[in-house]
Amino acid sequence: MRKTCQMVEKALVARLLKGDPKPGATLESERDLAQRFSVSRATVREALQKLQNSGWISVQQRHCTVVNDFWSQGDLELISSITRNSEDFPPDLASHLLELRLQFAPDYARRAVENNAAGLAEILARAEKVRNCAGSLVKYDWELHMAMAVMSGNRIYPLILNSFSSVYSKLRTALFTREEYRLQARKYYREMLQAASTGNAILAESVTRAAMKLRLDSFQLQFGGMQGVPAPA
């Protein structure tokens, strides 16, 4: 049942992202959905429960299922649901996630230098030994940003990053497959090493803001005209 439940959930998420049906409207009945997907009503009920838990819908009395205004009422679980169930991650949403990181990454970089410059410098010193391939750089880049988030002392930052980890991994992989973006990343690591080695928190904030803005611009340039970014596996 689990596999067929995931199939139903994925199909309904794809519809909801396209506005079918729109917020405030109702989904088909369990019986109609079961017939449509050639599954049992129990399977449909399980899929609907998952969608309700993620904030997509509300199952009301008499089994009436209403589509929520999920973009304004949802939370981080909605992003996780999109990641799990979308074949192509919406490029506009991916861009918005990178815009969000542009807002908080400079702050956790500055705080990390203020709180543990030596520890951060030790992590950054390893960058030169990282293989020049997308997979290795993605892994290192994630470890670096998570370390800075933890070192910042703000316990919310690691939670936010973990919520988006698979999405960010896919976005970074898409960018780091190109040599020019790998060079940009290595330039950022060198500048951050200088900031951490000298205890210059303001420099760390500045170079991180510039690097995150460059990644956002690069992503929009590369994927702006595409239908979607391949969703994380």
TrEMBL record:
Please provide the Gene Ontology terms (biological process) for this protein: regulation of fatty acid metabolic process
Q: Which InterPro entries match?
A: FadR_C, GntR_C, TF_FadR/GntR_C, Tscrpt_reg_HTH_GntR, WH-like_DNA-bd_sf, WH_DNA-bd_sf
Where is each HTH gntR-type domain found?
2-70
SUPFAM superfamilies, from UniProt?
GntR ligand-binding domain-like, Winged helix' DNA-binding domain
Enumerate the UniProt keywords alphabetically.
DNA-binding, Transcription, Transcription regulation
Q: Which branch of life, at top level?
A: Bacteria
Specify whether Cell cycle is a keyword of the entry.
Answer: no
Q: Where is the signal peptide?
A: none
Extract the CDD domains matched here. Answer: WHTH_GntR (cd07377)
Gene Ontology molecular function: any one: DNA-binding transcription factor activity
Q: What is this protein called?
A: Fatty acid responsive transcription factor FadR domain protein
